[in-house]
Structures are given as structure tokens and as C-alpha cells.
Amino acid sequence: MRLAASYVPILIARIGSGASAFLVVKLAVSDLEAGIVMAAYPFLEALGALIAGRWSDTLGRKRTLMMGYIARSLAMLLLAWAFFVNAVTLHKAVLNGIIGLTTAFILTASLAMATDLTEVRNRGLGMGGFEFINLASYGVGYLVGSALYSIFQGPAAYLTVALLTVFATPVFAKYLPETRPVAPAGGMFLLSVLPPSAVVLLPVWFALTTIIGLGMYAPRVLQVEGGGIVSHVVSKVGENLVVGLLFIGALALLGAGAIFFGRLADKWGRVKTFRLGLMGGLSALVVLNISLHFGLGPVESIAITAPLLFLTSAIGPSILALIGDEADIRYRGTIMGIYSVMLGLGIGVGSLLGGLVAAAYHQAEINALATAALGVYAAMTALHLALSKAYQGAVRETARII
């Protein structure tokens, strides 16, 4: 029950983040503004994680969470106002960056709580549950954002999301327990306490989050085409809502896979599960690019790719379990902050790359985004293999239950 309670903050936060991501892209006045404003959020989230991890160790998980939620709610209300008055791009980017910065406090503290409440024998499953809530609630938020945009067609949609976030905060704040005593103020920062395995594994994580950033940019250029049932659904609910359904479907698949492969990481081994996900991700992107190249629409291409996409979901929980197993309990919040750091950097790079690719390839944006995703993933996989060779023995099994 306490483990489930630790997931609630990230559930509420990510629904708001997903809706915000869809609406920021749609409400931007140009492709370039969409990329800049979107990128500010994850880049500042990465910075916030460096602070939040340390604070969750020294000030407490719950206090760090609450500070993040209060500041985040105010920033979302201000960004809604900025959209209403059509403020300059820099103003919108700064506010969205503050939202990302404060979201890191919620994400990092919540993940540290989940790690506190699991043991080696069930940590893979616990991390899989965290990944499921993180991804699935983001997808729900994306769908909420697409629905609100279909209704309001303007900044009122973002204001609605901001108000929902403000009023949802008290739902968990009163009942959320602290999971461990506050650590001494002295200590080390993230880069000096990372276990060796993290150095080798993080390039793949960066690739995965960069692809998520590219996916978040996609609604600005995605046109849902196809015959039969696809055309029927688009005519009934509208293209914006169909895009939202596609996104939540992909994230729900990844989230469900995270639970399955998290348990597999406990039973079969962390490293084996990670390698299965690594190959699944590469195969998924190759198949996606081939499908789009031969003229299949986005819906059909994603459907064909789905089984391999499911395998990709093995990456997140296996990495989290490996790092969590090796983390010094005194610096657990600081170390688990690496999750938000990589999430922020990857999504930020993906958002900027999405804007650049869309601007360069006006007639084939979706194909270009898919090609960029494959290029990033292949490059980071090569870097991971090179680091594995250089740091032999750094990635090893930390738990295996038969």
C-alpha cells in the first residue's frame, strides 16, 4: 500500500505534463517557437533533478515533493496567461522551463520513495510499476490535452489543465507518508556517487528519452491518414483526438511492458532483460522506418511496430533496478535523480531536433522524424557498446531469483 501511495504524486504530475506537452506544441505560433518552448521544460527538468535528488536526501522526500508541486502550479497558471496574451517566445520558454524544473522535484522524490519501499528481490517489479505510472499517466495527459484542444481550440485548454493541477495537489498531500529519515546535510553530488554501471547504461537511456522528445513534437506535423476504420474514426472524433489516442496507446504499451519486464528482471536477471530491450528498440525503429518508407500511414506503421515496441519497455525498469541495487542508501535520492537528468536532457534534445527536422523537411516530416530517431538510437547503442568494452565488468547482475 505504501509503495502504491508513492506512485500517486507522479500520476498527478505526469497527467498534467502530458496535457501540457500536447498543448504547448499546438498553441505555439511557429515550428521554431514550438521547439524552443518545448525544449525549455526538459532541459530545466534535468537541472532541477541535480538539486531535487540532494534535497530529497537532506530535506526529506515529502517536503521536496510539496515544494515542487506548489511552484509548478503557479508556473502553469502564469504560462496559461502567457498564451492568452500571446507573450514573446522567451517568456513562454522561461515559464515552461520553471514547470520542468519543479517537476523534477516531484519525479525524483517520488522515485526515491519507490526505491526506499522495495528490496532487491522485488525492485525490478517496483521500478516497472513506477515506469508504468510515469508513461501511462503521461499518455492519459496527452489524451486529455488533445480532447481539451478539440473543445476549446485555444489557450483556455491550457488554463483548464493548470487549474486541474492546482486542485489535484491536496488529494495526495495530506496522506503521503515520508519513507525514510532525513540524511545528514554533508555528502556528495550526483556525478561522484553514480555506480559504474550507470556510465555504461545511460547512453541508451538518453537515446530512449530523445525519441520520446521526438514523439512529443510529432502532433504538430502528424496527419492521420488511411482508409477503412482509420478514416471512420478520424471523421467521428477528429484528428487531434486520434493523435492523442495513438500517443497514449504507445505509452500504455510501454508502461505495461515495464511491469512485465520489471518482474522478468527480478527472475531472469537485470542485464539479460536490458539487452532484450536494447535489441527490441533497434528492431522497432528499423521496422517503423521501413513501413513509412513504403507508404504506410502512421497508424498502420505503429501497429506493425507494436510487438517490438513492447520489447523496448524492458530498458527502463532494468536500468532503474540495476542503479537502485547499487545505490548507497545515504545518497539514494541523489543517485535516482539521474532518471530525471537523462529524461530531461533526452526530451530536450528530441524536442529541438524535432523542430529542426520538421523545418528542414516540409514534405516528409514524419519520415524524417523516424529517421532521426533511428540515427540517435544507433549512435547511442554504439557508444554503449564502446563503454561496455572500456569498462569491462561494470554492468553485472545484481539480483537473480530462480
UniProtKB/TrEMBL annotation:
It is found in: Cell membrane. It comes from the Archaea. One of its GO terms (molecular function) is transmembrane transporter activity. The chain crosses the membrane at residues 34-53, 65-87, 93-114, 135-152, 158-176, 188-218, 241-264, 276-296, 302-324, 336-360, 366-387. InterPro entries: MFS (IPR011701), MFS_dom (IPR020846), MFS_trans_sf (IPR036259), MFS_Transporters (IPR050171). Residues 1-390 form the Major facilitator superfamily (MFS) profile domain. One of its GO terms (cellular component) is plasma membrane. It is a multi-pass membrane protein. Keywords: Cell membrane, Membrane, Transmembrane, Transmembrane helix, Transport. The keyword Nucleotide-binding does not apply. PANTHER family: RESISTANCE PROTEIN MDTM, PUTATIVE-RELATED-RELATED. This is MFS transporter. It comes from Pyrobaculum aerophilum.
